[in-house]
Amino acid sequence: MDKLIITGGEPLEGEIRISGAKNAALPILVGALLADSPVHIGNVPHLHDITTTLELLGRMGVTLTVDERSGVVIDSTTLTDTEAAYDLVKTMRASILVLGPLLAKFGKADVSLPGGCAIGSRPVDLHLRGLEQMGAEIKVENGYIRATNGGGLKGAHIFMDQVTVTGTENLMMAATLAEGKTIIENAAREPEVVDLANFLNKMGAKITGIGTATLEIEGVSALHGAKYNILPDRIETGTYLVAAAITRGKVKLKDTDANEL
How many whole angstroms separate alpha carbon 55 and alpha carbon 217? Predict the structure, then answer.
């Protein structure tokens, strides 16, 4: 589709159900890799990036069950491969999020660099430095991040040189199964980061400082399955609210949360 032609001038009216937030769904779907039993995730939006993430998990051998009501069941106990291949990673930079969970739970990961991007020119280097502080052994070669956990990740005091959502999420997920306490300073505080932390805690993680710039994660030996619903998409909510306001319309938004705006 090259363009959209919109004939405006009319008030917008109607009732709309708000989808789950994509930027919360992606790390939560990946975070399910950490569990020792199936994870039931609800309010998953129907988007291309979600499909790509599920395909990525499926290629690793993860068992997936998708229903027609925005639900996904993820069972990582069937995982057979810890590689995230370039043909999928190139379409979605958030694929780097598999690095932390794979390292923490399965001991190794081979993750393609999205678009062949150079380490140091993008925030992905913050992920790697943080994981190295936790004891990971990482090499970047032939367009891949090749990492092992050196016999087990250890808690560390990590200061993020710049605020990064995916970096915070990656390190937080890895820290849930690390030995000892991890402190992440200058952490991202977006609602989607909060949602991931709440999801991990529901699986048995011990994360405090949620919603602040300092996260403390006390590592545990294992995480268990859980049922969890993705938070509503605040961008979608705001878009419809603004559209209704500027057209002097009347729109009812369902399954959203004004507190997240």
Answer: 30
d(CA 80, CA 99): 15
Q: In this predicted model, what pLDDT tens digit does every residue of 168-204 receive, in sequence order?
A: 999 999 999 999 999 999 999 999 999 999 999 999 9
- Quick one: 55 exposed, middle or buried, by C-beta within 10 A (0-12, 13-18, 19+)? middle
Backbone torsions φ then ψ of 43, nearest 5 degrees: 60, 40
The catalytic residue positions are 117
How wide is the angle at C-alpha 160 spanned by C-alphas 157 and 35, nearest 5°?
Answer: 70
Contacts of residue 233, Cβ cutoff 8 Å, sequence gap at least 6: 18, 19, 20, 21, 22, 45, 256
Map out the domains of the chain as residue ranges: 20-250
Interval 101-138: pLDDT, tens? 999 999 999 999 875 444 455 558 899 999 999 999 99
Cβ-contact 237, 261 below 8 angstroms: yes
Q: Which two tokens stand for residue 235?
A: 């961008």
Model pTM? 0.93
Q: Which of 158, 137, 133 is nearest to 146 (CA)?
A: 137
User: Could you tell me if 51 and 29 are in contact, meaning their C-beta atoms sit under 8 angstroms apart?
Assistant: no
Chain centroid to CA 252: how far? Answer: 29
Strand partners for 214: 185
CATH architecture label of 20-250 = Alpha-beta prism (3.65)
Other Cβ atoms less than 10 A from the Cβ of 110: the count is 16
The pLDDT of residue 115: 54
